[in-house]
Amino acid sequence: MNSLFDDEPLPDATPAPAAPLAGIPLAERLRPKTLDEVIGQRHLLGPGMPLRVAFDAGRLHSMILWGPPGVGKTTLARLMAGTFDAQFIAISAVLGGVKDIREAVERAQVAAAQGRRTVVFVDEVHRFNKAQQDAFLPHVEAGLFTFIGATTENPSFEVNSALLSRATVQVLKSLDAEELGQLIARGSEELGITPPTPEAAQRLIGYADGDARRLLNAFDTSASLAQGAQIDEALLERALGEQLRRYDKGGDQFYDVISALHKSVRGSNPDGALYWFARMLDGGVDARYISRRLIRMASEDIGLADPRALRITLDAAEAYERLGSPEGELALAEAVVYLAVAAKSNAVYKAFNEVKAFIKQDQSRPVPVHLRNAPTKLMKELGYGHAYRYAHDEPDAYAAGEQYLPDGLEGQGWYAPVPRGLESRIADKLAELRRLDDEAAAGS
């Protein structure tokens, strides 16, 4: 049976006779029946947010739900169908094909003849090929049914443009620690047991890694073993075994291991980075989570000192998506080593944070007139764009002395490249451009 935030579609069938609660998985017992029961996705479901507005206004429209596993894609699709009293047809792109699409169309036609709307939900829609995805187009355009696709992959790359243009893309996020804590509290209440100890709850939250389904299944298993006793770390170990291998045999906490990987990369130690990477895999951390952290490291700690690092890390993440475990883990290991040995710079990271902090406390400065766009005659008469110097028409394609910051910020500099890797050459380039600016200022 599927669970609360299961992303695998359920068959659209007449409900079976009610079973004793003891025989129903906790995640299924906690499946939200209304939007207000959904935990997480406040950026979509909070007051005034896109999906909440669509629900409240009765505007059911085709969409792609993009997000990681266990965040409620199937649940939201079912809630939409229920809210609008629409027939719900679920298709798995992993197991289904054109035959299933044809059957869905026929069922939607029957429902339409009866004056009832239909929601066709396609799980893992990115696994359908172009021809299969195209099969939905005429029926979506004709309004025969509302199409809702769920995917863990970037729809820009995995969903064909024709279908994408007929659907909005809603991005779902992993649940944060507070939201997972709410799930534990709700599960404890449902089971009528004392909540887990704070240490056990923290371990469960770390193990779930933002996945509500994973958390509730682990909690359900642990509660069954506890037989009414409070769940502590020792009981979690017995209940989940290898699934919950301790990252902290020496007293570390879950996020300490992630921190150790990050600091080993930052410290240019490939052996340490590989060790902590392997520890995380051995402990059951989702490799996709590790790949996201590696992408962050490439931007934060290496940056423009070696721009190839980001591309190599993105390629490794894509290779893992194609191969899965264990084959794809080698690609991530390659990225780990490359990040560790690459030249390091946090210059962009620091400059970006400093600019954000400055803007937050500064006034809203107007765009200088010479930088403004002037698409109309009135704007031209007001001087918009006047005296702007087109860089490509200047010597070496550089308009020496031109001002690009708002008035009052002349000479301000946030980005300071480090003397390592490619950034040492960037520093030389910027120094030469500043020299040309000074010459232009002296001659004006």
UniProtKB/TrEMBL annotation:
- Origin: domain of life: Bacteria
The record's section on Pfam families has: AAA (PF00004), AAA_assoc_2 (PF16193), MgsA_C (PF12002)
Give all residue intervals belonging to the AAA+ ATPase domain: 59-175
InterPro entries according to UniProt:
AAA+_ATPase, AAA_assoc_2, AAA_ATPase_RarA/MGS1/WRNIP1, ATPase_AAA_core, DNA_pol3_clamp-load_cplx_C, MgsA_C, P-loop_NTPase
Q: What UniProt keywords apply to this chain's record, in alphabetical order?
A: ATP-binding, Nucleotide-binding
- Which family does the record claim for this protein? Belongs to the AAA ATPase family. RarA/MGS1/WRNIP1 subfamily.
Q: What does this protein do?
A: DNA-dependent ATPase that plays important roles in cellular responses to stalled DNA replication processes.
This one is known as: Replication-associated recombination protein A
